Amino acid sequence: MRHWSAAARLALCGSAVAAGLSLYGCQREERRFTEWPPTATAEGAVREVELQPGPPVRRVATRSAYEENAYAVSEGKRLYGQFNCSGCHFHGGGGIGPPLMDDEWIYGSQPENIFETIVEGRPNGMPPFGGRLSVQQVWQLVAYVRSMSGLVPKDVAPGRDDHMQVTAQEQQTDQARPKQSFQPPSTTRP
Amino acid sequence: MSADALGTLLQQPLQFPGAHSALAPAGPQAERVHALWQFMWIVSAVVWVVVVLAALYATFRRRMPAVDAPLEEREPLSSGGPGMLTAVIGATAATIVVLFVFLILDFRTGRALTTPPAGALPIKVTGHQWWWDVQYPSSRPDQIVTTANEIHVPIGRPVVLELASADVIHSFWPPNLVGKRDLIPGYTSTLWFRADSAGLYRGQCAEFCGYQHAKMAFYIVAEPPEKFTAWLAQQRDSAHTPADSLTRRGREVFLSSSCVMCHSIQGTPAGSRVGPDLTHLGSRLTIAAGTLPNTRGNLAGWIVDPQSIKPGAEMPSNQISPDDLQALLAYLETLR
């Protein structure tokens, strides 16, 4: 029987815990090549009410698989740019369309609500993307849209932009301080 | 080239003579690189033989007799004499000379390859994960030709490639024509080559760029100038208007499904620039960046489940009813 010193025992325990944590951490980066369900259409992906005829059917929660996965969120970000969401919503700040990075949701902040918004469209300008996007792409977009206002776990939300930017990123800029819009009269007089 | 022959080629790229090999140069750049490689190969072979002979001599030469005397009574070991010293100095000097000769020849080859000549044909190539966007620029927007994964060039005329990347670092490498050049995001680099003999040359991304790096190939079709001009004029046309009800339905399927979100077909409302331009898809040899020969069956498999052919590609799987799929395939085949 070997005798471990207290320090060696501590180091061993520490590295075992670190290895376990790192394995657990891989989940957030896991990349699934074949998605479930493999459909291109959004039929049956979201339900308005829980009531249904016949015996209850257990439903697989698709959304959580995307909301806890950094790769899905980053794919959502790519699609957000490629499908020109920024044409109206800009990079979340809103312009023609409502802002997405605040905590005000006209049609609800739940993943199902945003899924419906993208697939069915909304009055006054939001076009329906149903039939044009696969279910996976919509869920990826939902995850990214929710990440803008901090509704997905912080460890999966992208902290930086992959594309080059003209200005410094928001996290890197100094906090804006209120500026005086005019010189007080007392300072201009001699 | 028929689709069958191309299929054989894709399955056995190394057995197709000259398709993808730096040892079968088809232009002056590749010939220079090949000549340099041959010279280096011969010199290295001679050096290797000399080194092996020296090692064998050192192993089997006459040994010093064993000495039983205690250490302090032995004669001091000789340094091998003046002959040994000369040999060491000579070998060192020869190494330096050989490396300098390599260096100078390398510089000369590099210089000869970098300066593009005047009057070259410009082509823009943009690397994407995992395909190549190819554009023949023009001052008139309606004369610009956009295609993908296939570069047609006239033989005997220099071609200047403007290389850029849309996402990560790729590397453009058609070994039969010229060496590698990296495609760096946010930076345009140029590479020029001239193809002297007509033929089909395979190229490949040579910088690891993600899951499907290996399936990011392209083909360079070198053809006589008049054939090239005809090809370019044909590629400038808008897509064919469907003539019968089946292809008309196919176009409707294309425009009303998820295809239209990423692909463009000139002459239709489809104008997205996310995926490859499909205006003349039917005229191309391969689909999915040199992964499969462009046949109807392969195209059907690719549309329905691209993720099983190229896992990780940005094209999602599509569920299309069999009738719609047949109509779509019929339409895509007319895009010549």
Overall number of strands of chain B: 12
CATH topology of the largest domain in chain B: Immunoglobulin-like
Alpha-beta content class of chain A: mainly alpha
Give start-end ranges of low-pLDDT stretches of chain A: 163-167
Number of helices of chain A: 7
Relevant CATH superfamily of the largest domain in chain B? Cupredoxins -  blue copper proteins
Structure annotation, total helices of chain B: 8
Strand order of the main beta sheet of chain B, please? Answer: 3-2-1-5-8
Q: What Rg of chain A is obtained from the alpha carbons, in whole angstroms?
A: 23 Å
User: Helix and strand string of chain B, N-terminal first?
Assistant: HHHEEEEEEEEEEHHEEHHH
Structural class of chain B: alpha+beta
In terms of quaternary structure, what is this? heterodimer
Q: Which parts of chain B are unreliable, with pLDDT below 50 for 5 consecutive residues or more? A: 11-18
Nearest-angstrom radius of gyration of chain B? Answer: 28 Å
Helix content of chain B: 25-40%
Span between N and C termini of chain B? 16 Å
Shape of chain B: elongated
Q: Which CATH architecture of the largest domain in chain B?
A: Sandwich
Task: Tell me about this structure.
The complex is a heterodimer of chains A (about 190) and B (about 325). In chain A, about 35% of the residues lie in helices and about 0% in strands. Chain A has seven helices and no strands. In chain A, about 25% of the residues are buried. Chain B folds into two domains: about 20-235, Cupredoxins -  blue copper proteins (Immunoglobulin-like); about 245-335, Cupredoxins -  blue copper proteins (Immunoglobulin-like, Sandwich). The model of chain B is unreliable at about 10-20 (pLDDT under 50). Chain B is an alpha+beta fold and about 325 residues long. In chain B, helix 2 (about 30-60) packs antiparallel against helix 3 and helix 5 (about 245-255) crosses helix 8 (about 320-335).
